[in-house]
Specification:
With 102 residues, the protein is mainly beta. 8% of the residues lie in helices and 33% in strands. Strand 3 and strand 4 form a beta hairpin. The longest helix is centred in the last third of the chain and has 8 residues. 1% of the residues are buried.
């Protein structure tokens, strides 16, 4: 399997209020629970991780302004997984410890 990683930052738009970044752009965001992606029980804010995401394109548009042409697409996330070290730790125990439950 091969892949190319590309910058996914987006310039500010008037109709959104994103979490800002230093360079005047904002990051695309995704939200998952431990039911969908158990690995997040081990992860920490600020760290970077690799996800494998299967998506279905739901919308595609082309906009032409003068000689400039831009395209954009919307996607529905169908499946998600993480590229990990396969530590095998029980994520449910990790979640309970974060919540101080036994």
């Amino acid at each position: 399997m091969s892949y190319t990683l590309r910058n996914a930052k987006v310039k500010y738009m008037d109709d959104v209020s994103p979490s800002t970044m230093d360079d005047g752009e904002y990051a695309q965001t995704l939200r998952f629970t431990t039911d969908q992606l158990p690995e997040i029980a081990y992860w920490q804010p600020g760290e970077e991780y690799y996800l494998v995401i299967k998506v279905k394109e739901t919308e595609h548009s082309i906009e032409k302004k003068g000689k400039e042409v831009s395209e954009e697409a919307n996607f529905e996330v169908v499946e998600v997984g993480a590229i990990s070290d396969d530590s095998g730790e029980n994520y449910e125990g990790k979640v309970k410890s974060k919540l101080n439950l036994k």
